[in-house]
Amino acid sequence: MDTASLLMTAPELILTGAGLILMLIAAYAGDGSARLVSVLAVAALAVAGVSLTGIAGHGGDAFDGLYVADAFATFGKVLIYVSAAVAIIIAPRFFAAGRAIRAEYPVLILFATVGMGLMVSARDMLTVYIGLELNSLAAYVLASFMRQDSRSAEAGLKYFVLGALASGILLYGMSLLYGFTGSTSFAGIATAMGDGLSKGELFGLVFVLTGLAFKISAVPFHMWTPDVYEGAPTPVTAFFASAPKVAAMGVTVRIAMEAMGSALHSWQQIVIFVALASIIFGAVAAIGQTNIKRLLAYSSINNVGFALIGLAAGTAEGVASVMSYLAIYVVMTIGSFLCVLQMRDVNGQPVEEIASLSGLSQSRKGLAAAMAIFMFSLAGIPPLMGFWAKFLVFDAAVAAGLTGLAAFGIAASVIGAFYYLKIIKTMYFDAPADAYAPAGSRIESALIAVCAVIIVIGYLLNPLLDTASAAAAAALQ
C-alpha cells in the first residue's frame, strides 16, 4: 500500500468517507435528519480543509503521477471547500419554504466536491475525466433537486444533455491526444508536443479545450448557463457559480500550462478568442435581462472571459492573476447570491425579478448597500476588490506583450458596467415596489456582511493573496 499517496489524498478520502456515512444516516433517518447531515457535512469540509495544511509541505505526485498535491491544488481546494460549505449552510432555509428540504442535498455537495478536488489535483487525463464526471453526476441531480418545480426539472435535463455532450467532446480530445502522443499523463503529452505539434495533436488540443470551455461556460459553449442558473434552486445556483467554476478553471489552467505548455502559441489564439467572445457576449446579453439569476449567469460568463485573459498570457504572472481573480470572484458571487436569497415577498416566497428591487434602499438599507457593493465590484469600480482582480489579469497580459487584448478587455468592461449600474439605479432611484419580507436568517445576514467587508477592505489581504497565488502559479512551472 502506498501510504504516502494515501496521505496526500487525505482531503478526498475524508470527504468520501463522510459522504458515505452521511448517505447512510440520510437513508435510515430520512429527511428529518437534513439539518444534522448538513452540520456534519460542513464539519467534514472543515476537516478536509485542515488536512490541506498537513500536506502543504509534504506534497508531490501520488499514485505514479495520476494525482498531485501542490500549492496550486491547495489554493483551488480552499476556494471549493468554502463555496461548498456556504452552499450547504444557506440551503435549509430556502428549501424549508417549499417543504423541499432533503437530507441528500449536503451528501451530493460532498461528492461533487470530491470530484472537483480530483480535477484541480489531476496530472493525468484519466484523473481529470474521473473527477469531472463525479462532479457532474452529482451536479445533474442538484440542478433538478426541486422536482415539483418544472423549471428545476428542465434545468436538470438541459444540464445533463449538454454536460454529456461536453464530456463526450472532452473524452474524444483526450483519446486523440493519447493516440498521437502515446500518453495520458501531462508530462508525457508535454514531451510529445515539445517535438512539434502534429495535426492529430492539434485536433486533440482543440477538442480538449472545447470540452473544458463547456465546463467553464465560456462562449460559444455557454448555452446551458442562463437556463440552468435560473431553473436550479438558488443555493444550488450559488454553488454552480462558484465551486465548479474554480475547479473547471483550475483544471483548464493546469492542462494548458503543464500538458500543453510547449504548444503555447497554438492554444493561446483559441483562449484569446474565447476570452474576448465571453467578455462581449456576457456583457451585451445581460443588458436586457429581467431575472436576477439569469443576469448573474451572464455575469459569470463575462467574468470567465476576464479570467481567461490571464491564462492567455501563458506566464507565471498570468496564472497567478487567474488564481487571484478566482478568489475575488468567489467572494463577489457568493455575496450576490446571498442577496438574491433575501429577495422574498411578504409570504416568504422567493422573488427573482429585477423590478422587485425598486426602491430597496428605502425599505432594506443594509441589503441595498450590500448589493450595491457587489455590483460595483463585479463592474470593476475602484477601490473595490473587483477592480484589483481585473487589474491583475490586464497587467499580466500587458507584461506578456498582449497589450491589444488588455486594451480591448478594458474597453469591453465598460459595457458590463452598464447592467450592474442599472441594478443600483433601480434600488436607489426607482419608485418603491412591494417591500420584501424582513431578513429571516442571521446566518445569511452575517455571511453577506463578511463578503461585503472583504470586498471593501480586501486590499489589506493583498499581501496574503499575492503570496498564495504566486505560490500556486510557481507549482505549475
UniProtKB/TrEMBL annotation:
Chemical reaction(s) catalysed: a quinone + NADH + 5 H(+)(in) = a quinol + NAD(+) + 4 H(+)(out)
Protein topology in the membrane: Multi-pass membrane protein
UniProt domain NADH:quinone oxidoreductase/Mrp antiporter transmembrane: residue ranges: 122-416
Keyword NAD attributed: yes
Any one GO CC term of the record: plasma membrane
Localization per record: Cell membrane; Endomembrane system; Membrane
Alphabetical keyword list: Cell membrane, Membrane, NAD, Quinone, Translocase, Transmembrane, Transmembrane helix, Transport, Ubiquinone
Domain of life of the native organism: Bacteria
Membrane spanning stretches: 6-29, 36-58, 78-96, 103-122, 159-182, 202-224, 269-288, 295-316, 322-341, 366-385, 397-421, 442-461
Function: NDH-1 shuttles electrons from NADH, via FMN and iron-sulfur (Fe-S) centers, to quinones in the respiratory chain. The immediate electron acceptor for the enzyme in this species is believed to be ubiquinone. Couples the redox reaction to proton translocation (for every two electrons transferred, four hydrogen ions are translocated across the cytoplasmic membrane), and thus conserves the redox energy in a proton gradient.
Subunit-structure text: NDH-1 is composed of 14 different subunits. Subunits NuoA, H, J, K, L, M, N constitute the membrane sector of the complex.
Name this polypeptide is given: NADH-quinone oxidoreductase subunit N
Organism per entry: Sphingobium subterraneum
Protein encoded by which gene: nuoN
